[in-house]
Amino acid sequence: MGGRGALIVLEGLDRSGKSTQVIRLVEKLVSMGKKASKMNFPDRTTTVGGLINEYLQSGKDLDDAVIHLLFSANRWEATRSIRDRLSSGETLIVDRYAYSGVAFSAAKGTLDIEWCKGPDRGLPAPDCVIYLDVSSDVAKQRGGYGEERYEKEEFQKKVRTCFEALMSQEPAMWRRVDANKTMDEVTEEIEGIATKIVDQVTDKPIGSLWT
Ligand code: FDM
Ligand code: MG
Question: Tell me, what's the pLDDT at 1?
């Protein structure tokens, strides 16, 4: 008994069902008697997060490198809390992390993947990244995209290519889940993956991302 909690990240395109699955997974773990909570990035409640929010809602224009660094800073400002919570035995289920950071910035075509990874090197490394793989057809059927910057089909396709590149760099870290299935089927698959991870990491040190 005891030991640290797991850092489990869910990644995927818009309309992949990520946010719903994060909530369901936390509920499941809690119902099993585990200490678990959700986090999400960007965290729009901080000062840096407020700038990110303005940018996403299209009001504010920022250089591609600058907004990339702000997204990264928004993770760095949470790292002490992440480490403390994991160490206290709490499992964190995170809606997007540095992989979204790299995929969305690199998809613009102005910044390369290796440059994009730089500022996030040394963040707490996830124990597992679950990728909710949704086709553009199914994403469309789910009600299409919203109004924010990046919520456009053409751009999302480029983001998908960048996610694929990141997965092929670290195949052992990722679990791909077919998110075209029903929400309940996806929930079940994710629960199977996550509960195993939670039990496996209790005695492992927290890793350091991309170092
Ligand atoms: N996004 C998210 C980034 O561009 N970089 C990042 O580092 C992160 C975490 O922000 F389009 C993008 C992805 C998405 C947008 O995210 C807002 P949510 O999950 O829809 O709030
Ligand atoms: Mg969104």
Answer: 56
Distance 28 CA to ligand 1 centre (A): 25
- Checking ipTM against 0.85, whether it exceeds it is yes
pLDDT digits over 81-114, tens only?
999 999 999 999 999 999 999 999 999 999 999 9
SS3 16: coil
CATH number at residue 42: 3.40.50.300
Q: What region, left, alpha or beta, does residue 130 occupy, with left being phi > 0 and alpha being psi -120 to 50 degrees? A: beta
Domain limits for position 161: 7-200
Q: Which residues does a 6 A CB cutoff place in the pocket of ligand 1?
A: 41-42, 56, 71, 96, 100-101, 104, 150
> Does 2 reside within a domain?
no
Indicate whether 205 belongs to any domain.
no
Q: For residue 75, give the ligand nearest its CA.
A: 1
Q: Whose CA is nearest to atom 4 of ligand 1?
A: 104
Are 59 and 149 contacting, i.e. CB atoms less than 8 angstroms apart?
no
Q: How many domains does the chain contain in total?
A: 1
Which residue in 172, 153, 150 sits closest to 100, CA to CA?
A: 150
Q: With respect to residue 211, please indicate whether it lies within any of the assigned structural domains.
A: no
pTM over 0.95: yes
Tens digit of pLDDT for each residue in 125-145?
999 999 999 998 898 888 778
